[in-house]
């Protein structure tokens, strides 16, 4: 391979050190660390599909007579926004797939952020030194919800138009400045003709730019502080144990982008979402049954339905009823969310930095609070479909409403209590969460089944899978680099000796002596006998390595 | 290198722990990439033929999924996984570093603080510039609310028209019927939308002062919900109730559209009606209170 460009860039930008550190960065390996990745990849997909949509969408509420390819609406007066959404769905190649992917990706995006947030919360990853990233992440969640609502509003269909009307009323309900705020944000009285173009600018420019900046900061801070890790063998507060950025992590994470995109593409092509031609154009005096927003607004809609009809008047002023569920509740929600690292510290008095994550069961108090709060928002979420539930189960709307008003107070404490008890139980149970031994179930000729534990030697084999070393070891390249630095050998120019010192150092760390099958610093230093170092289906050189299971006992 | 015992091999087969060999993983990755390649070609053909949503979705799934699955499998089974260990560097800078930082800051701060008048003047100037710059930006976004939220297009003598602009006669609506009406000249208006009802029951409880508002049993209420502003679109004739489908507020038509269920805090404002000599329905006057959801200035 030609490495000249590396020299060229390094001589001009001095990037070799950063790049070396980046390639050799260690990422702890756990499925729960991929949740944030799903969110990030969804964001990329949103940017890509979104740019595509902007080429065809016309952000205008000016009326035109529709003569497009959707026959049932032929001759109807519709807005340009609505008509252009129909056109890009029906007449543009892959337009509908792109639009539906965009919508699905938005739903996945917010969902992934929320689940990622829950992971961070329940494992205590927000503790010092990561409070800043907790704030950045919370801001990203709020922006994602806002961005989703704005985008959902753009096609100017009956359901989203009703949503904008509610948003206008909510803005109006803010004490003191509400009527000014509503007039300035929506360009006058509802509906007007300024909302769609204005929402469009905010949706495609302002909020995405802010989000891209915040996402960059989120990643940069994570990169700088290094990832947290779960407790385990060889893992301490002062180290990171996992796979190397290059090539294992880069391949896994990079491939995961395509997997995320594949699922969103399948949803976009096969699962219909927001068929606006079935809802019709937004007409202010029309409304349809089962008016529900996208899922991430469900808790607000539920709160609007459940909150009693209390309106405070006095001194010639009014605090409208929707202020409480739609302004105060989100304010408290996001206030508590952002303040949580400091709120928790009041009780724990813990000012230490933490790089090892809590197992949720070992911190029963935090887990139970989290579960209780989750239960509260889940009840609100389900309350956003009171009418649908009443219809589906043939109950009176009155009963469903009052049931939810009760549930919103009853469910959270019960959920929190159960979570607390379960956590206490789980953390006191011995061996809970540890890998189990393989069990052999065999059937005798008479048809009798017996279960017995497998040969203990097999477990040893499992851990010694070809690509895994038994004991965490430093990356050979890094080890040799630091060894050379320490002995004052200098770090410039590649010498054959460096590679040798690397291998001997790593061997020393793992406590086994080995011979290197091939040398030279340009070769990735892998323990002998590992695949990739020779052989294989597409490998041009060397014979296939025949590997066999070895009994560690026999080796000695 | 010792070979494993036959018993151990058998045991592994029994528990299903026979390891997939490297070349088998290579085959999986190769099949995965090949599948992606085929799907991409298929996608090209579908586009060329004009496109088909479901086919595009499925082919995109295989094109992207094949790439993703192949790359992940390669990265997980065909490259070294460690575990590797790396020491964390202390995030905190050494004390000496911070001390020099503070000294360096001091260098400027002392110079600036000496001229406190200039500092204050600078602060005021920047603040003034900021406020003045914000003003046209914010102020141009929309008009001041003024009387906007208090008035509708209904005036004394406004004829009731349908959404297509045609006037409504007193004989047009059947008993038990309901119609969305607007003031003449403002058909389809969001703020003035009004629901005209001719209830089939006689026991209307008229609020004091509204005795003349409902000629021939007609009642007209603002269609904008007093909760969050949705159109109160569903009329249940049997119970004489109006339902808002957004948050399920119920208004009792017979008692002046009082809210009887759900989160709506106030009755729907009533429009006083009259019938002119030709039998057309007119508004006696506009609404006597602001319509729709509440706001701060509203008493």
Layout of helices and strands:
The complex is a heterodimer of chains A (556) and B (299).
Chain A: H1 4-13, H2 16-23, E1 26-27, H3 35-54, E2 63-65, E3 77-79, H4 80-90, H5 95-122, H6 131-153, H7 158-172, H8 178-186, H9 195-225, E4 229-230, E5 239-244, H10 245-270, H11 276-279, H12 298-306, E6 312-314, E7 317-319, H13 323-348, E8 356-357, H14 364-383, H15 386-392, H16 397-428, E9 439-443, E10 449-453, H17 456-463, E11 468-473, H18 476-486, H19 496-510, H20 552-555
Chain B: H1 6-15, H2 22-48, H3 53-77, E1 82-87, H4 95-114, H5 116-139, E2 160-161, E3 178-183, E4 194-197, E5 219-222, E6 234-236, E7 241-243, E8 250-252, E9 258-261, E10 273-275, E11 281-283
Antiparallel strand pairs in B: 2-3, 3-4, 4-5, 6-7, 7-8, 8-9, 10-11
Please summarize what this structure is.
The complex is a heterodimer of chains A (556) and B (299). Chain A has 556 residues and is mostly helical.
Please explain how this structure is put together.
The complex is a heterodimer of chains A (556) and B (299). With 556 residues, chain A is mainly alpha-helical. Chain A has helices spanning 4-13, 16-23, 35-54, 80-90, 95-122, 131-153, 158-172, 178-186, 195-225, 245-270, 276-279, 298-306, 323-348, 364-383, 386-392, 397-428, 456-463, 476-486, 496-510, 552-555; strands spanning 26-27, 63-65, 77-79, 229-230, 239-244, 312-314, 317-319, 356-357, 439-443, 449-453, 468-473. In chain A, strands 1-5 form a two-stranded antiparallel ribbon. Chain A has a two-stranded antiparallel ribbon with strand order 2-3. In chain A, helix 5 (95-122) packs across helix 10, helix 6 (131-153) packs antiparallel against helix 13 and helix 14 (364-383) runs antiparallel to helix 16. The longest helix of chain A is centred in the last third of the chain and has 32 residues, at 397-428. Chain B is 35% helix and 14% strand. In chain B, the strands form 3 sheets. A 4-stranded antiparallel β-sheet of chain B has the order 2-3-4-5, with no helix packed on it. Strand 11 (468-473) of chain A pairs parallel with strand 1 of chain B.
């Amino acid at each position: 391979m030609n490495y000249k460009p590396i020299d060229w860039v390094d001589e001009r930008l001095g990037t070799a050190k950063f790049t070396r550190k980046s390639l050799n960065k260690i990422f702890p390996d756990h499925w729960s660390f991929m949740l944030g990745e799903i969110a990030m990849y969804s964001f990329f997909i949103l940017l890509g599909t979104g740019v595509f949509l902007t080429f065809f969408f016309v952000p205008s509420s000016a009326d035109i007579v529709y003569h497009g390819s959707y026959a049932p609406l032929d001759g109807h007066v519709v807005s340009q926004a609505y008509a252009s959404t129909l056109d890009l769905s029906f007449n543009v190649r892959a337009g509908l797939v792109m639009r539906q992917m965009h919508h699905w990706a938005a739903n996945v995006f917010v969902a992934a952020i929320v689940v990622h947030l829950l992971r961070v919360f329940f494992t205590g990853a927000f503790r010092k030194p990561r409070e800043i990233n907790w704030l950045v992440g919370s801001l990203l969640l709020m922006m994602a919800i806002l961005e989703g609502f704005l985008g959902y509003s753009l096609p100017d269909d009956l359901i989203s138009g009703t949503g904008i009307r509610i948003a206008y009323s909510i803005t109006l309900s803010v004490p003191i400045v509400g009527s000014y705020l509503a007039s300035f944000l929506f360009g006058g009285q509802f509906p007007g003709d300024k909302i769609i173009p204005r929402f469009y600018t905010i949706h495609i420019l302002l909020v995405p730019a802010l989000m891209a900046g915040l996402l960059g900061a989120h990643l940069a801070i994570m990169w700088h502080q290094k990832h947290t890790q779960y407790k385990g063998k060889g893992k301490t507060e002062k180290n990171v144990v996992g796979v190397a950025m290059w090539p294992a992590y880069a391949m896994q994470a990079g491939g995961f982008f395509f997997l995320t995109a594949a699922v969103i593409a399948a949803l976009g092509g096969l699962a219909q979402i927001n068929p606006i031609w079935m809802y019709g154009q937004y007409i202010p005096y029309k409304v349809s049954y089962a008016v529900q927003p996208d899922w991430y607004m469900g808790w607000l809609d539920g709160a609007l339905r459940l909150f009693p009809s209390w309106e405070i008047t006095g001194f010639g002023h009014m605090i409208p009823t929707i202020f409480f569920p739609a302004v105060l509740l989100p304010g408290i929600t996001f206030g508590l969310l952002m303040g949580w690292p400091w709120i928790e510290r009041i009780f724990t008095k813990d000012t230490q930095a933490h790089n090892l994550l809590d197992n949720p069961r070992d911190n029963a108090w935090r887990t139970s609070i989290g579960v209780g709060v989750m239960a509260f928002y889940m009840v609100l979420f389900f309350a956003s479909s009171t009418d649908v539930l009443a219809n589906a189960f043939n109950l009176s709307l009155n009963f469903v409403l009052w049931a939810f008003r009760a549930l919103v107070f009853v469910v959270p404490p019960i959920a929190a209590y159960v979570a607390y008890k379960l956590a206490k139980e789980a953390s006191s149970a011995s061996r809970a969460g540890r890998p189990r031994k393989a069990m052999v179930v065999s059937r005798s000729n008479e048809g009798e089944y017996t279960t017995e534990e497998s040969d203990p030697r097999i477990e040893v084999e499992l851990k010694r899978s070809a690509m895994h070393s038994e004991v965490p070891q430093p990356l050979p390249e890094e080890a040799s680099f630091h060894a050379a630095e320490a002995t004052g050998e200098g770090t410039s120019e590649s010498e054959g000796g460096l590679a040798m010192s690397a291998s001997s150092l790593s061997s020393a760390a793992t406590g086994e002596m080995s011979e290197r099958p091939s040398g030279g610093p340009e070769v990735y230093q892998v323990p002998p006998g590992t695949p990739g170092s020779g052989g294989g289906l597409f490998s041009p050189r060397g014979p296939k390595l025949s590997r066999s299971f070895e009994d560690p006992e026999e080796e000695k | 290198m010792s070979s494993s015992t036959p018993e151990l091999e058998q045991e592994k087969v029994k528990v299903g722990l026979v390891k997939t060999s490297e070349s088998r993983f290579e085959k999986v990755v190769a099949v995965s990439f090949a599948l992606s390649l085929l799907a991409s070609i298929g996608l090209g053909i579908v586009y060329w033929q004009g496109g088909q949503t479901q086919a595009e979705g499925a082919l995109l799934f295989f094109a992207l999924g094949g790439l993703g699955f192949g790359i992940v499998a390669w990265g997980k089974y065909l490259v070294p996984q460690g575990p590797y260990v790396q020491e964390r560097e202390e995030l905190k800078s050494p004390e000496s570093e911070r001390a020099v930082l503070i000294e360096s800051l001091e260098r400027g701060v002392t110079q600036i603080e000496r001229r406190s008048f200039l500092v204050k003047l600078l602060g005021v100037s920047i603040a003034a510039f900021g406020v003045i710059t914000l003003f046209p930006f914010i102020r141009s976004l929309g008009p001041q609310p003024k009387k906007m939220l208090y008035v509708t297009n209904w005036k004394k003598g406004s004829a009731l028209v349908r959404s297509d602009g045609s006037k409504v006669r007193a004989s047009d609506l059947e008993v038990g019927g309901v119609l969305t009406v607007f003031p003449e000249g403002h058909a389809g208006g969001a703020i003035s939308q009004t629901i005209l009802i001719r209830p089939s029951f006689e026991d209307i409880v008229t609020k004091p002062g509204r005795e003349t508002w409902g000629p021939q049993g007609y009642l007209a209420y603002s269609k904008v919900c007093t909760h969050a502003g949705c159109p109160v679109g569903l009329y249940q004739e049997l119970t004489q109730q109006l339902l808002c489908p957004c948050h399920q507020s119920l208004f009792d038509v017979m008692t002046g559209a009082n809210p009887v269920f759900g989160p709506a805090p106030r009755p729907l404002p009533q429009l006083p009606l009259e019938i002119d000599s030709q039998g057309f329905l007119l508004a006696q006057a506009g609404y006597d209170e602001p319509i729709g959801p509440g706001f701060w200035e509203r008493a």
